[in-house]
């Protein structure tokens, strides 16, 4: 094999871990139009009797979302959940300090949880550890999960919901390392509060899983030390530590942007190392896993003016409604490759967000809903990635980037189900086509379906017409009879188009 050849080695016996279905989560925050005219719009032609949009619900099912995080995000750090339950006509609007928007409280805890239940989505609730603390957090768990006969459970029943919701996943605040956060704390302050709140929450319901805040990004000046300090207080209480990361093309640096998956990979490795170091110091056999509960392409530096520059607004203003290209979709696919390759330590993840706000689904008030280009790789991966992630070995040349140094030209992830069903995901980051040799010694490989996203060079434009044009030009089936060539012995060749993400479905069985 030449120095420039690419080889991907697969074997069904070499596995990293089961792919948790919660890896395909998303996020709904009270931000912009994520809730109002997003998932919820009474009077819309498709709205159900509860006011939730049927067209959005249908696209959410098609997207394959399994978990939705709620109600924030930065929003949660000044949220008074008690004001968002009970009769809607008695709820008082409040000024959300995070996004400088008047929140009408038309959707609160019950409305969201019942929507999730109807849609078969697992909720992931966050508690306010910015302006509130232990008592309010434990009370919310009791309200959601408690049996009749206690104060907060009885309030839920009085509000019309007798059966407990049984919410399993809980976030202990949001991005508490960030100076932008309402109630921002240093690692010691937050670690102590998170431990106290988590302890009380598990006394209410010992079955819940807790997510403690990790660093808001790998670029935070406290990264690493934050994880070590926070986990020194919470290691025995929590189950997961959060990770958040957003990626964008800066200054036309396409090569670095296409390598965002490598940056994510390094971030995961460093957080795992930090968590395991704390465990080693404690001589603990417990492994803290990761909830990567905010990730996406977000043009944060180049398009978003910053929270402080937002005027106070009402009526679901249009905030952070990034429009995506085929290039953005290729990067999203590559980020999914990274998450699958860490299935042993990343059981939970959430694409931020679901509707309108840096989202795969867009809507118009009173009008249609449509798929952004980023919708397609997510939906395809959620559909195909089943069973266990394989320990895929990739031999590939690298290329240099300004932001990430040397990075692989080709990345790959694969999953195999108990019946031998295989899903293989491949990214070609180079501007040239690549021939990939799939080495499957001792196994028979058959490919029967393929889908591909191509990067484009056109600027993204708001609206369903643009999204449809991108899909027509960049997204579609792979002709597996020409793109996939069985070769002699246990080797199959796959042709990858320039700057592309490809998903192949088939079988991998022991010969």
TrEMBL record:
Alpha-L-arabinofuranosidase C-terminal domain boundaries: 293-500
One Pfam family here: ASD1_dom
InterPro entries listed in its UniProt record: Alpha-L-AF_C (IPR010720), ASD1_cat (IPR055235), GH (IPR017853), Glyco_hydro_b (IPR013780)
Superkingdom of source: Bacteria
GO molecular function, one term: alpha-L-arabinofuranosidase activity
Catalytic activities: Hydrolysis of terminal non-reducing alpha-L-arabinofuranoside residues in alpha-L-arabinosides
Family: Belongs to the glycosyl hydrolase 51 family.
Protein name: non-reducing end alpha-L-arabinofuranosidase
Gene source species: Xylanimonas oleitrophica
């Amino acid at each position: 094999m030449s120095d420039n050849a690419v080889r991907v080695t697969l074997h069904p016996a070499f596995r990293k871990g089961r792919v948790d279905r919660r890896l395909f989560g998303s996020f709904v925050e009270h931000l912009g139009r994520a809730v109002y005219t997003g998932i919820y719009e009474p009077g819309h032609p498709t709205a159900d009797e509860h006011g939730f949009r049927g067209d959005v619900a249908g696209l959410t099912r098609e997207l394959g979302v399994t978990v939705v995080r709620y109600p924030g995000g930065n929003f949660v750090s000044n949220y008074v959940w008690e004001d968002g339950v009970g009769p809607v006509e008695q709820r008082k609007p409040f000024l959300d300090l995070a996004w400088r928007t008047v929140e009408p409280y038309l959707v609160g805890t019950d409305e969201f949880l019942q929507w999730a239940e109807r849609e078969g989505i697992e909720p992931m609730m966050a508690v306010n550890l910015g302006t509130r603390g232990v008592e309010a957090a434990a009370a919310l768990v009791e309200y959601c999960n408690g049996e009749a006969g206690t104060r907060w459970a009885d309030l839920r029943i009085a509000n019309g919901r007798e059966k407990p919701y049984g919410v399993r996943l809980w976030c202990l605040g949001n991005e508490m390392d960030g100076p932008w956060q309402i109630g921002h704390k240093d690692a010691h302050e937050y670690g102590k509060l998170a431990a106290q709140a988590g302890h009380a929450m598990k006394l209410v319901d010992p079955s819940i899983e807790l997510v403690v805040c990790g660093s808001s990004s790998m670029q935070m000046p406290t990264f690493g030390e934050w994880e070590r300090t926070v986990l020194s207080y919470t290691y025995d209480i929590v189950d997961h530590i959060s990770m958040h990361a957003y990626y964008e093309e800066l200054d036309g640096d396409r090569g670095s942007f296409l390598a965002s998956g490598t940056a994510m990979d390094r971030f995961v490795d460093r957080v795992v190392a930090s968590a395991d170091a704390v465990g080693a110091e404690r001589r603990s056999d417990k492994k803290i896993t990761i909830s990567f509960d905010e990730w996406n392409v977000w043009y944060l530096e180049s398009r978003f003016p910053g929270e402080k520059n937002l005027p106070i607004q009402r009526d679901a203003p249009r905030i952070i409604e990034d429009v995506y290209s085929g290039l953005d979709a290729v990067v999203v696919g590559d980020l999914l490759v990274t998450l699958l390759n860490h299935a042993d330590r990343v059981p939970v993840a959430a694409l931020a967000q679901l509707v309108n706000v840096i989202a795969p689904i867009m809507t118009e008030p009173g009008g249609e809903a449509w798929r952004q280009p980023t919708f397609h790789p997510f939906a395809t991966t959620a559909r195909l990635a089943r069973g266990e992630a394989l320990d895929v070995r990739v031999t590939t040349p690298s290329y240099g980037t300004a932001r990430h140094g040397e990075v692989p030209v080709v990345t790959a992830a694969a999953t195999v189900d108990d019946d031998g069903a295989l899903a293989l995901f491949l990214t070609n980051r180079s501007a040239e086509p690549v021939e990939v040799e799939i080495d499957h010694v001792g196994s028979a490989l058959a490919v029967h379906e393929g889908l591909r996203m191509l990067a484009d060079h056109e600027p993204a434009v708001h609206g369903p017409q643009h999204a449809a044009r991108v899909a027509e030009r960049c997204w579609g089936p792979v002709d597996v009879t020409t793109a996939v060539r069985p070769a002699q012995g246990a080797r199959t060749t796959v042709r990858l188009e320039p700057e592309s993400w490809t998903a192949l479905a088939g079988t991998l069985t022991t010969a």
